[in-house]
Design brief:
Length: about 250
């Protein structure tokens, strides 16, 4: 067991949210009971995750995508009311960290995605230096974009959308988890042969075809499944908490 404030302090010290300009509040988003014994981690604070956390007796939930975002109207109705009602009725704390969780150099989404794919980062690029540029950990190249796509599909267990150059050896690989379409141009400027992210928007398909850099959209959820449990497990071990990762499947 630990105090809620102690858990918040440990997460803040690890993830350093003050370093980031973000799209919503990082840290404790919903206050629950003061004592925490079991911590559940997940990608998004969906109703399904909250219900699953209640079922396993969680005192706190740690996620990448929290409840509150810039631009919301502030009304507690519909899905927001349903999620908040569950958290408040069961006195569960909700902790959410967005960009700080993407960026942590060893436990974050980008670092953990690289671990899953056998990549090693050598530099960062893009806004707030969230994008990573590197190569295969074994020093080899991918024979083609199709070779890289097949490798990712096997590692992440889902189909990949590949656009762009089809017959090119890939040595410099760029990646940024989630919805990082806007980082593609910065990846091209950084010298990447291929860019890995979660989603594909209309303009990036044209950039990929015209610039000769392969674009691989691998799923927003699929590329961000690894940071939350890595951070939560680390902090749980530090504070003597029970931790459980609950993966709520999402096709996006």
């Amino acid at each position: 067991m630990c105090e809620r404030a102690e858990l918040l302090r440990a997460l803040d010290e690890l993830l350093q949210p003050e370093r980031f300009k973000d799209y919503g509040p990082n840290g404790l988003q919903v206050e629950g009971q003061a004592q925490v014994g079991k911590l559940v981690s997940g990608v998004t604070a969906s109703r399904a995750l909250i219900e699953a956390a209640i079922a396993v007796g969680a005192d706190a939930i740690f996620v990448h995508h929290g409840l509150f975002w810039r631009g919301q109207d502030g009304c507690v109705t519909g899905w927001m009311k349903q999620r908040l009602a569950l958290l408040l009725a069961h006195d569960i704390n909700l902790f959410a960290y967005h960009l700080p969780l993407d960026a942590h150099p060893t436990l974050g989404n980008n670092a953990q995605l690289a671990l899953q794919l056998g990549l090693v980062a050598q530099s960062q690029f893009g806004e707030q230096a969230l994008g990573c540029l590197g190569q295969r950990a074994d020093g080899q190249s991918f024979a083609s974009p199709q070779d890289l796509a097949a490798h990712i599909e096997q590692a992440l267990g889902r189909a990949v959308t590949l656009v762009g150059e089809q017959h090119k050896t890939l040595r410099k690989i760029a990646w940024c988890s989630g919805g990082a379409q806007s980082y593609f141009e910065a990846a091209i400027e950084a010298g990447a042969d291929a860019f890995i992210t979660g989603e594909l928007s209309e303009p990036q398909a044209h950039y990929a075809r015209e610039c000769g850099v392969a674009y691989l959209a691998c799923g927003h959820h699929a590329t961000e499944r690894y940071g939350a449990p890595a951070v939560a497990a680390h902090v749980a071990a530090q504070l003597g908490l029970v931790h459980e990762f609950i993966d709520i499947d999402n096709p996006a």
